[in-house]
Amino acid sequence: xxxxxxxxMALRGDELFLxxxxxxxxxxxxxxxxxxxxxxxxxxxxxxxxxxxFCISAGxxxxxxxxxxxxxxxxxxxxxxxxxxxxxxxxLRGACLLLTRDVLPGC
Length: 107
What we know:
This protein is an alpha+beta fold. It has helices at residues 28-40, 45-50, 86-93, and strands spanning 6-12, 15-22, 54-56, 77-80, 98-100.
């Protein structure tokens, strides 16, 4: 199971570039990638951590999709934090993705 904070390290070549961690249960590995990508894009560390994120749902054979009620809808829902423009969410929704504006409760 995921714990409250799972640390991550990033290297550049053989040198330590960054050591950091994010909270969020199932969201943790996704959050690690998003924070790292923000830093590589030039965000400062705090700005990278504060930037809004998205989460692809955990979906598993034992859980049900909120839209279909079907079990096992792996990665069928995408959650967005406040701060991601509604126009972006609507454009993705137009691509037939199942999206929600719920707070990311660890997905």
